[in-house]
Amino acid sequence: MDKRTILIQLDSDPLPSVFDRVVAIDAGADEVLSYGGVRVEQVRDLVHGAIFTRGPKDLKRTAFFIGGSDVAAGERLLEEVGRHMLPQFGLRVSVLLDANGANTTAAAAVRAAARHLDLQGTPALVLGGTGPVGQRVARLLARQGADVRVGSRQRSRAETVAQAIRAQVAGARVEAVATGTAAELQAALTGRTLVIAAGAAGAVLLPRAARAACPDLKVAIDLNAVPPLGIEGVEVMDKGMQRDGLIAYGAVGVGDTKMKIHKAAIARLFERNDQVMDAEEVYALAANF
Amino acid sequence: MDKRTILIQLDSDPLPSVFDRVVAIDAGADEVLSYGGVRVEQVRDLVHGAIFTRGPKDLKRTAFFIGGSDVAAGERLLEEVGRHMLPQFGLRVSVLLDANGANTTAAAAVRAAARHLDLQGTPALVLGGTGPVGQRVARLLARQGADVRVGSRQRSRAETVAQAIRAQVAGARVEAVATGTAAELQAALTGRTLVIAAGAAGAVLLPRAARAACPDLKVAIDLNAVPPLGIEGVEVMDKGMQRDGLIAYGAVGVGDTKMKIHKAAIARLFERNDQVMDAEEVYALAANF
Amino acid sequence: MDKRTILIQLDSDPLPSVFDRVVAIDAGADEVLSYGGVRVEQVRDLVHGAIFTRGPKDLKRTAFFIGGSDVAAGERLLEEVGRHMLPQFGLRVSVLLDANGANTTAAAAVRAAARHLDLQGTPALVLGGTGPVGQRVARLLARQGADVRVGSRQRSRAETVAQAIRAQVAGARVEAVATGTAAELQAALTGRTLVIAAGAAGAVLLPRAARAACPDLKVAIDLNAVPPLGIEGVEVMDKGMQRDGLIAYGAVGVGDTKMKIHKAAIARLFERNDQVMDAEEVYALAANF
User: Fold this and answer.
1) Bridge partner residues of A246 (DSSP)
2) Which of A62, C253, C286, C288 could make an S-S bridge to C239, C-beta 3.0–4.6 Å?
3) What is the pLDDT of residues B62-117, one digit of tens each?
4) pLDDT tens, residue by residue, A22-70
5) DSSP 3-state of A27
6) Distances in Å between the alpha carbon of A129 and those of A101, A135, A148, A225?
7) What is the pLDDT of residue A105?
8) C-chain residue closest to A55, CA distance
9) Residue B228 pLDDT
10) How confident is the model at residue C120 (pLDDT cuts 50, 70, 90)?
11) Domains of chain A by range and CATH?
């Protein structure tokens, strides 16, 4: 009989996420070993426990999931997990980062856009583009060949993100834009056919008035689930809904695809022992949904 | 294939109870997600993780169990869990409170009495009636129509409990009595056919001498498992044993029924997604045992 | 259907060992209840939860595993676990100590030696003999009738260990030797056919030069996995390898047997409810591998 599949959940929050545990179970992980409050210096022993216990042919049946509400902390854990694998001896296991759901959310949002637009060359604006989800959305769009504006109240912060994307994605078409004032927002929106809002809860990033002056806009996707939403006029349950001539998606409308991607990513972990699944690898699964 | 059943154990003690985990497994929960040291402010995310992960038809296969040695802390967790359900969207899961075994113990004790007495109208005395188990025993007896005296060393504390029961149980026949002195105890016992002792370990609440002067007493149930027992002359293993003309139950004698009720309550959780199981709901299961 | 087997993992480290959890799963435990940062004063309730939840015929399907990097802490937990069993009522479960892998490592090392030598009467030297693994190796060798030298930089510390072994093993042939200087090491090695090095990582306990002057040596086993190894010339992957006329074992070479012993010990736990498995009981399983 095959060995049971084991997902080792590393969560930077004190209590490991119930959400991530339930999804892991429903995705088919036989056992979920959950760790909360995980700090970087504790990762080595956890990784060694994963890679030194099963033989090479069974290592694909052990994997790591990195979660927690703090995406930056998750990224540090991901890096540290990689540091303690021993690929030179074939001793490694696959790992998926989805801290705060950032990768699956970004993938689902870009996937929603791709249902209606050929992303290659599409003029896009990412509002709240400097947060963990916004950065990933912008990067994924850039990889698909979109012409991406990264929006932030402070242009300098957006520029940092744009530069990082240019460094990661060869040939990326990315520019930073300020969106703090109505005039800046108007300029940022000019010519855009796609807007994805990935800002913090409670901030309206795109008032209805601004939209009216943006005739080229075709698809609007809002990833905020808590009212007031980031794009005025979009509803949280919208899933490809026609609204004022736009195709609209709200957070819950995107959530169904996000959940499917999340489960597919967990299942994928157990196919090989050498995967590192960050935004791009997660997005590669999205085409199925 | 049906999704696995998931019991989320919230325990206010630092280490989640082994007892509750083993009983949950033996009751048939496929997965038990155990959390220790849970504080009220951590509950929201745990509940959201439970209600946002599965579709409406599968939500009954996720449930909460609230335990821990501190019953008041458990009650606060129960209240907070309820606060974050979203019944208006059908997004809720069932929850069982059994902190310190208080509900299952009280239910088993009252069930033991009901095997021998028609509780309707039965004159009863609950010794140690202000503790978490004692309060529940008194309330359950009142709901069955018994004529209940809540005993405590300080009558004022017993009165608080009696008032709470009157507020919860329409038509409850409950009075507070002091039991601190031999004379007070004698008065409290007068005319009682049922005594249930639910006091703290190490305190003899009903000495043999006091019992002798109480000719109407028919059933004596002691819920203390650690010598000296609360009712002198009852043995911890007694389960309907005849002792000096009384029918006697000790803590272990009640424990078998308690365990059956506990398992039935866990199993019941997974039948519907809208149950809140506190003392009364747990007692409703006791008639089967 | 039989009740599921439950292994309760008590680990003195803050995060319970992934290694031990994975091995427990692969050894067939249906459920592993993992506790990290366990302190002695928390053990009582954990044990009560284990022994008060299942009937006598099912108690063998619950067991404790005690781990963690601190072997002394593990020994204190083992002692405390035993204190709260209630064998007079048949209320006990089996328990295995393998903190820091000390018991399975020591058993595997002695087993490796026994493949090549009749341990009865074999002159042996244990380098690093005062650490938790070294002590166990020396004790197991003494029980097999070997003529054991316990080596340490300070002879007085080795003498403490030797005395403890004499107190535990009737007829043990054990002596303490200093190994701090080249001359002391030379004297300690004289006439030895077996050397097992169980010292701390990073310390070369037996330089090649010292070996050259030791013509009787037949088997050299090094339990250090991190270079520099404890016995110069032995490689970490060696498993019965011929090296300079010696039969050599390195840590990884011993590790395969160690893993088999570990799994067999877990499986053994669920055969009876009255076992306390420390070094000797673990070694008794080693003959199968």
Assistant:
1) A243
2) C253
3) 999 999 999 999 999 999 999 999 999 899 999 999 999 999 999 999 999 999 99
4) 999 999 999 999 999 999 999 999 999 999 999 999 999 999 999 999 9
5) coil
6) 16, 5, 10, 17
7) 98
8) C256
9) 86
10) very high
11) 6-97 (3.40.50.10280), 104-254 (3.40.50.720)
DSSP code at position C206: B
What is the identity of the amino acid at A260?
A: K
**C118: Cβ–Cβ under 8 A, 6 or more apart, which residues?**
none
* The pLDDT of residue C172 is above 90: yes
Q: Which residues of B touch A259 (CB under 8 A)?
A: 53
Kindly tell me the burial class for residue B45, based on how many C-beta atoms sit within 10 Å of its own C-beta (0-12, 13-18, 19 or more): middle
Asked if the Cβ–Cβ distance from B33 to A19 is below 8 Å, we say: no
Answer whether the bond into residue C228 is a cis peptide, omega within 30°: yes
Task: Give chains near B: 3+ CB pairs under 8 A.
Answer: A, C
Pair A107, A119: CB distance under 8 Å:
no
- A252/C163 Cα distance (integer angstroms): 70
Q: Do the Cβ atoms of B102 and B285 come closer than 8 Å?
A: no
B32: alpha, beta or left? (left if phi > 0; alpha if psi -120 to 50): beta
Residue entry with tokens 């808590």: A226
Structure tokens at C215: 């013509």
Q: Which residue has the tokens 């004289």?
A: C190
Measured distance CA(B25)–CA(C58) in Å, rounded: 13
A48 vs C19, C26, C34: nearest CB? C19
CB atoms C19 and A54 under 8 Å: no
* d(C-alpha C267, C-alpha C29), whole Å: 8
The percent of residues in chain A predicted with pLDDT above 90, rounded, is: 92
Q: Given an 8 Å threshold on Cβ–Cβ distance, is B62 in contact with A22?
A: yes
Using CA coordinates, name the residue in chain C closest to B34.
C33
Instruction: Say if the ipTM goes beyond 0.90.
Output: yes
pLDDT computed for residue C71 by the predictor: 95
pLDDT single digits (tens) C201-221: 888 999 998 987 788 999 999
Mutation site for C-interface testing, chosen from A12, A33, A48 by largest number of C Cβ within 10 Å: A33
Sign of the CA dihedral B257, B260, B266, B270?
A: negative
DSSP state letters, B87-119: GGGTB--EEEE-GGGHHHHHHHHHHHHHTTS--
Residue whose tokens read 């006791």:
B286
Q: Which residues of A touch B54 (CB under 8 A)?
A: 22, 26
Q: What's the gap in Å between the CA of B170 and the closest CA on chain A?
A: 39
Residue A181 has what pLDDT? Answer: 94
pLDDT of residue C202: 83
3 state DSSP class of C94:
strand
Beta bridge partners of B175: B149
**A203: pLDDT confidence band, cut at 50, 70 and 90?**
confident
Q: Is there a contact between A259 and B53 if contact means CB atoms under 8 Å apart?
A: yes
Report how far apart the first and last C-alpha atoms of chain A are (Å, whole number).
32
- What is the distance between the alpha carbons of residues A240 and A126, in angstroms, rounded to a whole number? 18
pLDDT at A1 over 80: no
pLDDT of residue C16: 98
Could you give the CA distance from residue C194 to residue C178 in angstroms, rounded to a whole number?
17
Q: Is the pLDDT of residue C253 over 90?
A: yes
